[in-house]
Structure formats: structure tokens, C-alpha cells
Write a structure and sequence with these properties.
It is built from 8 helices and 16 strands. By secondary structure, the chain is of the alpha/beta class. The chain has 2 domains: 147 residues, Rossmann fold (3-Layer(aba) Sandwich), CATH 3.40.50; 134 residues, Rossmann fold, CATH 3.40.50. InterPro entries: Pribosyltran_N, PRTase-like, PRTase_dom, Rib-P_diPkinase.
């Protein structure tokens, strides 16, 4: 029997994340359509959705993570225009990684509040939003970003906890987060598994100049550690946190990230640091993906 999909007519995705869009469509039991993209020599994008012209679109899900966001934002705008022209009554943007969330205030004269600009831009195109671990700082909810548009903020803790459980995690494992911003994720991973949780303090002096200090009384000696964080990009935060955990006597260290934004050189450093390859959720396509989000996102859409 087909699931009750709340009358969503299909999932529309993009080539770089076609597999994830297809898995979401399968979880929703609806068709999946992948946009055709063409890049002109001057850098302009052309998008084509031939399926949208076949019948009225109705309610639709558009799936795209907004890592490397600039071209993607333009292409999302073009896709939304096609779907509206062909009868979309409601567009839900599923963007597991949401861009431009960190600049939520004016830090120096002459800067924009990028979060507000992009929130207003996307809010004019889409009727509702689903994101996973958006990198919010002083803004507390996505409703403050997409004003007047319903939004769902999901945590990547479930897939991480599921993987630890499937791997037979030792009951003396300590889940560690590098800073206070990671605390909700740490608690959401550790709590259901009955594991201890520790949160550090991060001092950032630059994009690649980071020091993480763990509490002096952190009970890590002789115990396995699982470091979790929402975004892994330069890797410096994780490297410093892992060194601090080892200095406190951790027996072993594993790393889990929700969004993997790091390149091959950083991946090589993880290996060189004795951390192996981190496991990440598949919202941002990456070689480290091993934690699927499709079921989590589908369940949220079905409840909506």
C-alpha cells in the first residue's frame, strides 16, 4: 500500500545529489525527477525539467543541499520558476545543508546580514523548508530566517546514534563535542544510548587557527571517545578536540559529522592523525557519507 504522502506529487533534484533525491522519493513513494543542467561559456546556467510540462505539478519537493551555494541558488530560482509556471501549488525546499547562516549580524561596518538576505530570497521562492542541523548562532530557529514560512529543523543525531548502536558501541564510550554549539547534538546522540557526554570550549583565532580545551575532570581515561560535530570543513576543530581527548587518556577516538565539507587534503590529515575517515550524513554528497538522512527527512514530510 502506498504511503500517505500528503499529496506531494514528486521530488525534483539535481545531478550532484541525484542518489539522495531518489532515496527520498522512494521513502515518500513518489516519482523522482532530476533537473538537466547546462553551463554556458560565460558561466550562466540553464535548467530544464521536461517532466514538469507533462501534467500540473501540485505540491512538490525540491531537494538540494546548499554547499558551494552561489550557482546553486541561481539554479534553484530557475527551477522554482519552472515548477510555478507548470502549476506548483506548494514548493517545499529540502536543503539538508543551508548556506549563509553564519553571517547573522553585522560584525564589521559595511558587511551584509547574509542570513537575512538569503532567507528573504528563498522565502519568496518556496512555501516551506526542511533543513538538517542548520549552522545557527544567535538566531534560534529557522522560523526567524524564513519569516512567515513553515520550516522544519532536523537533527543529525539519530543517524549517528543508529550507526553507533549498529556497531555495538561500548557502554563506557564518551560522546564529545568541541564546543557549546555542539552540545544539543552531543546530548541527542548520547542520551538515547545511555552514554556519557562531554562538551569542550573552543577558541577560534582564524579559519584554521583553533584550539579546543576539554574540562579538566572529563572522564576520558581508558575509555573510547566519539567526537560529533555538525560541520567538518577545515578539520582543525576536530583535530584539536581529538588531541585534547587523547591527552586526557582516551583509549580510542572516532569522528562523526553531520555535514562533510572537507577536501581530500583534509581527509588525508584525518588518516595521518590516526582518526581514519570520519563518517558523515549524506545531505552533502561526500566520500565520507555513511549515515543516510532520507528516512528522517521523509518522516518529517509525512508528519507535516
Amino acid at each position: 500500500m502506498a504511503r500517505n504522502t500528503g499529496s506531494y506529487g514528486g521530488v525534483y533534484g539535481f545531478p550532484e545529489s541525484a542518489d539522495c533525491a531518489q532515496r527520498l522519493a522512494e521513502a515518500l513513494d513518489v516519482p523522482c525527477h532530476i533537473a538537466e543542467l547546462h553551463r554556458f561559456p560565460d558561466g550562466e546556467s540553464l535548467v530544464r525539467l521536461p517532466q514538469a510540462a507533462e501534467r500540473p505539478v501540485g505540491r512538490a519537493v525540491v531537494y538540494r543541499s546548499l554547499d558551494q551555494p552561489n550557482d546553486k541558488l541561481i539554479e534553484l530560482t530557475l527551477v522554482a520558476s519552472v515548477l510555478r509556471r507548470h502549476g506548483a501549488t506548494e514548493l517545499c525546499l529540502v536543503a539538508p545543508y543551508m548556506a549563509y547562516m553564519r553571517q547573522d549580524a553585522i560584525f564589521r561596518p559595511g558587511e551584509p546580514v547574509s542570513q537575512a538576505v538569503v532567507g528573504d530570497w528563498l522565502g519568496r521562492l518556496f512555501d516551506r523548508f526542511v533543513c538538517v542541523e542548520p549552522h545557527l548562532h544567535r538566531t534560534h530557529t529557522l522560523d526567524e530566517v524564513f519569516v512567515g514560512r513553515p520550516s522544519i529543523c532536523l537533527t543529525g543525531a539519530g543517524p549517528i546514534a543508529d550507526r553507533l548502536r549498529a556497531d555495538g558501541v561500548s557502554p563506557d564510550t564518551v560522546v564529545v563535542g568541541p564546543d557549546e554549539e555542539a552540545a544539543p547534538l552531543v546530548e541527542a546522540v548520547a542520551g538515547p544510548l545511555g552514554l556519557a557526554a562531554v562538551v569542550g570550549r573552543k577558541e577560534r583565532r582564524g579559519d584554521r587557527d583553533v584550539t579546543v580545551a576539554l574540562p579538566a575532570d572529563a572522564p576520558l581515561a581508558g575509555r573510547p571517545v566519539a567526537i560529533v560535530d555538525d560541520v567538518i570543513s577545515s578539520g582543525e576543530t576536530i583535530f584539536s578536540c581529538a588531541r585534547a581527548a587523547r591527552a586526557a587518556g582516551a583509549a580510542s577516538v572516532r569522528v562523526f559529522g553531520v555535514h562533510a565539507l572537507f577536501d581530500e587534503s583534509v581527509a588525508a590529515r584525518f588518516v595521518a592523525e590516526g582518526l581514519g575517515t570520519p563518517l558523515s550524513c549524506d545531505g552533502v554528497p561526500h566520500a565520507s557519507n555513511g549515515l543516510p538522512l532520507g528516512r528522517l527527512i521523509a518522516d518529517a514530510l509525512l508528519r507535516d
